[in-house]
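Researcher: Excuse me, tokens okay?
***
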Amino acid sequence: MVDTPFAFAPGQLDRAAHLRASDDVSKDPRALALVFWRGKLLAADDGHPVAVRLDHPALSDRRDHPIFLGLTPDGPRFAVDLPLWTPPEDAATIGQFVDQSLQVHPAWPEARLVEVRSVMPGLTVLEGECVATGRALLTWHSTHRFCANCGAESNVESLGWVRKCPKCGTQHFPRTDPVVIMAITRGDNLLLGRGPSWPERMYSLLAGFVEPGETIEAAVRREVLEESHIEVAAVRYVTSQPWPFPMSLMFGCHGEAVSDLITIDPVELADARWVSRDDVLLILAGTHPDINSPRPGTIAAALISAWADGHLFEATHWHN
């Protein structure tokens, strides 16, 4: 049972950074690895991750040593990517906004490689933290194999938490991209938008990356103005969520709009609209005629629900 308002909340994994300097922790007989392939997670039929021994023969399809995530009450946990494996099934939908395909690895015929978003609401807090950490780190490794300073292929060090260039000695560390996601309100109305590539009826809160030299508050105001031409005055930070798609940290905020005329940027949005609190209650109940319920486990769903219930400003509602 998930006891937080959204998925991937941290706090139950002991990251044990002091163990990253050697490979001794991987020799622990209780050490297990979560398996990923092209960002997808090996999961059982119930949606929970399958953890395998580090010496499993199928892990020979990895490129790098398994990444050490940390310690759990049941032993060390790692994450491993299998980029050298090719499935017999059609994988054409991988990378699309909605990937409903399921790949079967012959080593685990009773499990499936699934899109993490599809199982995140049912993950325990510890599972969610391990999955989010592992997926984000593996994505970073897959896109940062070569030194940004000299172009040589870098080596994995510190059990996956550093890449070091053997040619120029430059060290590279995992990156996290800051993103703001905001509940923008005006009176008793909430601003929702829909991206150009999103499925029909899917709406959410506006969001965007924080730019260099910018505060969270400034990013909220800029993104809302750019995407909808709505001006925002007061902004307050509410909560945050690690978001491993691919490696972001979502800063959930509330902003008070001082204008209400919407002019969308068609590059960023297909539509944006003000919805009343009554409309939001219908959306959350799944009975709104035009808008689907937000995806469970997301910070957007938590913020929208908290605003509809009048709890957005109660700090005790959020327990990260």
Remarks:
- The chain has five helices and 15 strands.
- Residues 315-320 have pLDDT under 50 and may be disordered.
